[in-house]
Write a structure and sequence with these properties.
The structure is a homodimer. Chain A is an alpha/beta fold. Chain A is built from 13 helices and 12 strands. At the A-B interface, helix 4, helix 5, strand 2, helix 6 and helix 11 of A face helix 4, helix 5, strand 2, helix 6 and helix 11 of B. The structure holds a DNA duplex (30 and 30 nucleotides).
Chain lengths: ~350, ~350
DNA sequence: GAAACATGCTAAAACGTTTTACTACAGGCC
DNA sequence: GGCCTGTAGTAAAACGTTTTAGCATGTTTC
């Protein structure tokens, strides 16, 4: 049950393995292999359905044609959809994907990087956790191609592909203001990472710009690793603590889902008694009653850009890093449309 | 930037690479390497943070400690959640996962198998498409460890882990009948594969057993690869075509979602004018108004079983294949509770 | 007629492991 | 002294590629 090797082809063609390798790697011209021999080898290879042994090739060249994809949580709709795009795009370049979820836990992330490293992936797509900067720099100093996604480290000059989170939050908030909401809160994750920071900043900026008083009591920052029950408890506690609250912006998809659940269990009517905007689109947001306004990320474009940038690093080592910031789209639905009383 | 190799350790310890290999593979006793030397090597390896080069090891042993996971669609909530469990479980055994989505397209599936094969994965977890039986048999005759999931081929003696789809559909239908629904339809996917066939069979059996007249007009079988728009159009056409219809069972999660959308766009009130049961749980089903009754799959258990069965095949080649059929849980919610008029 | 060059191909090393077959030495036994 | 047994290790091959350096042979060039 062995596979076909280059030696088998060589034997059949009556040439050396070297020649076969040259031909099959498209170096026939360069290495002055005659058309005749070249054709013959191609034919035999095709007939035997030769597939190069990637391990042997990898061992020799150091290239595995594999990339590592580290996401926050592959079970999360956003990351799962993105993973699929990445997989498809990478495939176009002949790369396979090894993936892993960090659960936003730095230790888990380090473990994943470790495994990917000794599996010799050629490049990395990383959704970094908060203290992963040292490891990223380590990879960089080892000249490993890498692209950060969803968030990045401002103090590190690396490639990244992210959403314009600031604009997402700013637009969402401005939209709520334009609808006439007066007291708008934000529920976010306690994180200093760019994606969350930018969303909070965008929110605050929109309020300030429209002369809406802002103070810290309008912001609730929850720990990432709470379970659903705790999210709900905390959100309810927060929402009832804000006086005259009339709208709330949930800064991640799972917070939005928990938010919907919480608000309903409080007996408040979304869209009537409280305006709501979520982050990332989701079937639930589309089909909820009322439907939920959200900041939607262009997932296909994000995935394509990620792979494109990574392939650039892979194929042109040493070329300058690239930063891509994509525009979000505000999908306006019923949850944020103030009904004229 | 080379990694640490067994040679580096050998040099430092003043022994041969062979000895290092023996010690590091736990064969010290067996190969009569002294405690002294053994300890020394261990220490040096730890100090240098030696990680074996998986490519070299794989090339020599034929084992890559990698498994291939082929799902229908990694962006689908069910498969994404399962993928995460599989990843975590496999990790416990030191295995990494290479994954791919078939989109239920046999050609794509064959392509994935091809790639996984020449990447030398040690074992396969496969959600088969309809004509993949030949390829499965090919893998089997090459003694490749494999586990089918979600569905299987009755005529092939392979390991598999699936839901008791028959019971799932049977329970769902019986529940609707017990609620007093008289004319119950099913919307399913046009597929002869076990998972869809069993769901349809369970549905029909429940009707017959409760002496509810059944005929083909109660069944709508849609092509898998329609887009959302077409699903909606077809479902609406079907639902309005059935006289006195008072309940409907959607046999997959995405059909359920499309079903909700369709019914609402028809202006029918779910739970009042029409009973509804879906398949696979989902945030949308939990939070929809009204909430949606569904047949829920025990995802964690499925994932654990899959990996366990695969590891058994991996570690005990030639041992008999194992079939695991797990029980679904009917999650009863508002969409199927008939309000007494 | 020798040097220079072009042509077409190959031998052998290397990548980092694992594993088989062996060596070298010591001690015990008859 | 010869033979066996046991102990502690090692040399070398093998896995399937890629790649460097080079070997014949024939053709120009002056």
């Amino acid at each position: 049950m062995k596979g076909i090797s280059i030696k088998d082809i060589a034997k059949q063609a009556g040439v050396s393995p070297t020649t076969v390798s040259f031909v099959l790697n498209g170096k026939a011209k360069e290495k002055r292999i005659s058309e005749q021999v070249s054709k013959k080898i191609q034919k035999i290879a095709a007939r035997l359905k030769y597939k190069p042994n990637q391990l042997a090739r990898g061992l020799r060249t150091g290239k595995t044609k594999t990339i590592g994809l580290i996401v926050e949580d592959i079970a999360n709709n956003f990351f799962a959809s993105l993973a699929k795009v990445v997989e498809d795009e990478a495939d176009k370049y002949g790369y396979k994907v090894l993936y892993g979820s960090t659960e936003d836990n730095t230790e888990k992330a380090k473990g994943l990087l470790e495994v990917l490293k000794y599996r010799q992936v050629d490049g990395y797509i990383i959704t970094p956790t908060k203290n992963l900067d040292k490891e990223i720099e380590l990879l960089q100093s080892a000249s490993k191609p890498l692209v950060l996604m969803d968030r990045y480290f401002p103090h590190i000059n690396s490639s990244y592909v992210v959403l314009n989170n600031y604009k997402g939050a700013y637009d969402a908030t401005t939209h709520l203001i334009a609808q006439g909401y007066k007291k708008i809160a934000i529920v976010t994750i306690a994180s200093e990472q760019t994606q969350m920071k930018d969303r909070l900043d965008g929110f605050v900026a929109a309020l300030k710009e429209h002369k809406i008083p802002f103070n810290k009591s309008l912001v609730k920052r929850l720990a990432f690793d709470l379970d659903r029950e705790s999210f709900n408890t905390e959100i309810k506690k927060f929402l009832t603590s804000v006086k005259d609250l009339d709208a709330v912006f949930f800064a991640t998809n799972y917070l939005g889902i928990a938010g919907i659940e919480s608000i309903r269990s409080l007996g408040w009517e979304i869209g009537r008694e409280i305006g709501l905007v979520g982050f990332d689109d989701h079937d639930l947001f589309r089909l909820h009653s009322p439907s939920i306004t959200c900041v939607s990320q262009p997932i296909a474009s994000i995935g394509k850009n990620i792979v494109e940038v990574l392939m650039n690093e892979l194929n042109h080592p040493g070329s300058p890093s690239r930063q891509v910031v994509l525009a979000p789209e505000l999908v306006v639905r019923a949850s944020s449309l103030k009904q004229k009383a």
